Amino acid sequence: MTTYQEYQAKIAELQNLAESARRDELNSAKEKIAAIMREHGLTLADLAGTAKPAKVSKPRAPVPMKYRDTATGQSWTGRGRAPKWLEGKNKEDFLIK
After folding, report:
1. Cys-Cys with 42: which of 15, 37, 67, 88 at CB 3.0–4.6 Å?
2. Tens-digit pLDDT profile for residues 20-39
3. What is the distance between the alpha carbons of residues 5 and 2, in angstroms, rounded to a whole number?
């Protein structure tokens, strides 16, 4: 019957073999990549330039005021929720001309 310690030793041995195989695969892949780069005359800078530039958005211009209460001087652009001072009143009476 195999003991726990023997299994641990086998696990450690297999992990070492796996790490060795991984290093070998990575080295092989690096060699293939380097050969392709040499063949086509590519540099690391050529590979790094493949990202798309970030989308630049322009700042929005302020919206002009459309309505003004002449009694209080408050104004509203006409966008969004109507202000309290305009409740129950005709908006047309407060249009800025």
Report:
1. 37
2. 999 999 999 999 999 999 99
3. 8
